[in-house]
Structures are given as C-alpha cells and as structure tokens.
Amino acid sequence: MEMENNMESQKRQVISTDDLIADRTGSQGCCGWFLVILSGLFVLLTFPVSIFMCVKIVQEYERAVIFRLGRITDRKAKGPGIFFVLPCTDSFIKVDLRTISFDIPPQEILTKDSVTVSVDGVVYFRVNDPISSVANVSNADYSTRLLAQTTLRNVLGTKNLAEVLSDREGISHSMQSTLDVATDVWGIKVERVEIKDVKLPHQLQRAMAAEAEASREARAKVPAQTGQRARKRARSFALDADVEAFVFPHAACADLKTCQDACECALARKISTRASCSAEPSFCQSCSS
C-alpha cells in the first residue's frame, strides 16, 4: 500500500513538473536568445572578474532552482556543489531539503459528542521536489503550517472524546495521509505527525475523576463483602463445634478476624454447656472433669 502511494506521488510530481516547464525549450524568443548571447559575450570579455559572478555553490542539503529570464531552465534542480549561472539573465533560489518540524498551536475543537477540547501537535516535513515547492506555492513552509491546523480540526471533529483520548496513533496516521496528499503538489513530503497534548475542561476533569474514584470504591467493596460473608459462615459453623474441632481443621478460619470470631462463639457455647452441666450433673459427667 505504501509503495503504491509512493508511485502515485511520483507520478503526480512528474505531471505537475511537466506541466510547469513543458514549454521551456525554445520559448525564449528572439529577444530572449539575444539577451542570453549578449550575457555570454559579457562573461567572455570580463572573464577574470566574471568568474566570481558565474560560479555558485550550494551545500549537500540544498538545491538551486535556476530561472533564466523568468523561466525554469531544467527539470531538475542544481546541486549539491558547484554550478554556473549567467550574471545578467539568470537568477536562482536555494531550497533546503532537510526535515523541518513545527508545533501546531493549541486548537479549540468540538468533538463528535459535543465536548470542547484543546489539542496541539507537531509535524515533521521536508521538501521532496524543489521545483514544485518554488513554482507552485509562494511559501511552502507557511502554507503547510496553516494546512496542518485546519487538518487537525477536520480530523478531530469526526471523533468522539473517547477516541481522541485513546486513539492518538490512528489520528496521527490519518492526519499524515491527509496532509501528504494535500501538499504533494507543493513538493512537500509529510514524514510524521504527532498529537502532543489533549486538554480537557476543568469541570469535565473533575467529573471524570469522581467517576474513576467511584469505580475504585466499588471494586474495593467486593473483597470486604466477601470477608463478611466468610465471617458469617464461620460464626454459624462455630455454634456447632468446639474451638479445637473448628479453628484448626477448617480453611474458613484462615484470617485472624475469622479465627477470633470462631473462638468467641465456641467459647461462649462451651461456657453455656458447662453451666448446664453444673446445674444437672446427672445429665453430663464429662464436663465435670
């Protein structure tokens, strides 16, 4: 899929460049060629000095788009290194090919579920076609910045709050593809888009915090209720058994509180049994010992 997108991008660049400089050859006219020849003669006549006016250098990360009498001279930008221009008829513009990053200012966006959030981000892009970036747009950097702001609003306007908070990677990929298609005719390649921060209104933050606290409390009540049920079962078991017969063999008395309750219940039962036996010794002789 990515290879197909790259092939389509290259085709669009070739078509736009061909349309831009299709008539460059032989389109100077008689007057234009006369000026070019005159400029060449001037360079020859002032050769030792004019060499400093003709020789230009661009860095490894730069390219030069040359205009001759206002027209682009070649399909490919010059550089890096040394190139030559005619001092009177040629002019050139340097284009930086390095990756440029900029911050998207915080945007107040209304989500799909009618929640206002403030979102900002960062965009990384570079010039992919120097000729298109010079001839097709007046300021490629500024235009890309404005387009990134509107694209952020358009993409997040179709998402609800839960998707904005959880699906940042999907939003970034959607913005990158949209920006890449829109800026392709300008010779710009959008390499990466990242969502930096999502700021919620204070009232919504308090409401979400209260909801999270309530859910935590509800989860914390489950073990307490389980323990209470275990203690109730332990009390009912202890009413029918002595301490030695109940506390140690049964797993229901694993915690200290349950064992204490069982001991109290069994002890109370034993005391009551001893009292009844002392009142009527003929019924129970085992308790007298």
What is this structure, in a nutshell?
By secondary structure, this protein is of the alpha+beta class. It is 53% helix and 20% strand. Strand 6 (100-110) and strand 7 (116-127) form a beta hairpin.
Protein traits:
alpha+beta; 3 domains; three-stranded antiparallel β-sheet; 10 helices; rod-shaped
Tell me, what is the CATH class of the largest domain? Alpha Beta
Query: Major sheet, described briefly?
Result: 3 strands, antiparallel
Judged by helices, strands and strand pairing, the structural class is alpha+beta
CATH fold label of the largest domain: Tetrahydropterin Synthase, Chain A
What is the number of helices? 10
Query: In what range is the share of β-strand residues?
Result: 15-25%
SSE string: HHHEEEEEEEHHHHEHHH
DSSP E strands, number: 8
Poorly predicted parts: 21-26, 246-255, 274-289
The separation of the N and C termini measures: 92 Å
Helical proportion? Answer: 40-55%
